[in-house]
Amino acid sequence: MGSSGFSFKLADHPKLPKGKTVAVVVLDGWGEAKPDQYNCISVADTPTMDSLKQGAPERWRLVKAHGTAVGLPTEDDMGNSEVGHNALGAGRIYAQGAKLVDLALASGKIYEGEGFKYIKECFENGTLHLIGLLSDGGVHSRLDQLLLLLKGCSEQNAKRIRVHILTDGRDVLDGSSVGFVETLENELAKLRERGVDAQIASGGGRMYVTMDRYENDWDVVKRGWYAQVLGEAPYKFRSAVEAVKKLREEPKASDQYLPPFVIVDENGKPVGPIFDGDAVVTFNFRADRMTMIAQALEYESFDKFDRVRFPKIHYAGMLQYDGELKLPSHYLVSPPEIERTSGEYLVHNGVRTFACSETVKFGHVTFFWNGNRSGYFNSELEEYIEIPSDSGITFNVQPKMKALEIAEKTRDAILSQKFDQVRVNLPNGDMVGHTGDIGATVVACKAADEAVKMILDAIEQVGGIYVVTADHGNAEDMVKRNKTGQPLLDKNGNIQILTSHTLQPVPIAIGGPGLAPGVQFRKDVPNGGLANVAATVMNLHGFEAPSDYEPSLIEVVDN
Ligand SMILES: O=C(O)[C@@H](CO)OP(=O)(O)O
Ligand SMILES: [Mn+2]
Ligand SMILES: [Mn+2]
């Protein structure tokens, strides 16, 4: 017992045994919705997931994966991987980035913090650069927060402001970028009327410029560096609205994949490169797609690509993106202080843990699962395996992705009997769902289902237990709908493809030969969400969960 009397020791579960291999499978982007032609999960051939649902109704249920159940501001907020895997791993509901920034802006506290004071030192003689996703999707950023921050900075005497936009079309409808740019331009014009030299300086599509993650493709970050810092890009425009409209026409790029552009003045000179003495804020609140650009902006020694020059700036993230690396060292809003996650408890109680996914989701089952921490809790007891993802493609061209390789690695880990917990993320439903390609997403869902089967067969062989769930919806609904659930047609009478996540609940199924008889889902946790899964998994490892965890979803009834 430490001096504070705290101990990671978990009490034994009164009825459930220890020592069973527990496989926790997270199907990314796999929600539950009424079957119809735009529900790729219902269209796809998914015999394994179907059997879990039909096989044992007392061991299959739905859980919430959006809104306040995962720490988001309102019930209109769709779920996402960050908040989903945070909740799955932490077993509690933490107010997440979107909400923390809302509170800090509303109270004005954002302007009193160390991070803001640090960037304010550059307001007199330098330029304030804001880099981030221009969208009201609320997954990585939110437009109204950017507009409030712009207003606040001008009131705090920022004299020169440059905004470097990343267009979305993934969490929001493709094409919505034009409207967001117009809204931003209107706000910047108001600032200019008040004597602030405020302009958009560069732009690009989030999947092609800046917002890569888990080091899948540094070229994405490099293209952004050139446009944002050096003022160099293949496309130059006088206006950002014109840039987005023209680039969507030629080279017919979607918002997600818009090529990088810079805004130039009447002499063709870029209006907003980043120079010594400037301040930079990356205004996304979500970590995974900011940590790579954060390294390039913060680290003196950086070798992932040639930066050409490294400006001496005051850089702050909207939040601190990595609590282990303390990256960035300055930030405007403190991140959720997620501690005592289930992974940390279980390792302290001797549970040997294996985690696996392919690059594009690798950090979900490690970094996010462990409460926004990179690295191991105990490298003696843990092993994280990353299968390299394809890079530089849109995943509808390879919808099977690396599902088979992930399943094979996970099967081998289970059969090795070296691990007590084996957790995995199967990205297909989400990564292909985000392309909006319905046919490819159907193939993706089938591939994910086949991977689940391989993992469950291995659990069968070792007498283990499985928990199959998801982090939020995506593939189960691929069109925008009206209130009655009918597809909402656009002005030309066409369906509007939904590339984003959904508000749908997600399934959770438990089973396997190692599951003690009498285990079933309780009926008294009707509003259970992803945060309840951690206590459930702890029970299946033979432990009681800490008292402050969301309650377990299972009970053991005597037959
Ligand atoms: O791709 C991403 O960054 C988000 C959507 O913006 O998806 P997920 O939360 O599933 O990672
Ligand atoms: Mn996800
Ligand atoms: Mn997603």
TrEMBL record:
The active site is at residue 81. It comes from Carya illinoinensis. It catalyses: (2R)-2-phosphoglycerate = (2R)-3-phosphoglycerate. GO terms for biological process: glucose catabolic process; glycolytic process; response to blue light; response to carbon dioxide; stomatal movement. Pathway: Carbohydrate degradation; glycolysis; pyruvate from D-glyceraldehyde 3-phosphate: step 3/5. Substrate binds at residues 140, 170-171, 206, 213, 286-289, 361. This is 2,3-bisphosphoglycerate-independent phosphoglycerate mutase. Keywords: Cytoplasm, Glycolysis, Isomerase, Manganese, Metal-binding. CDD domains: iPGM. GO terms for molecular function: manganese ion binding; phosphoglycerate mutase activity.
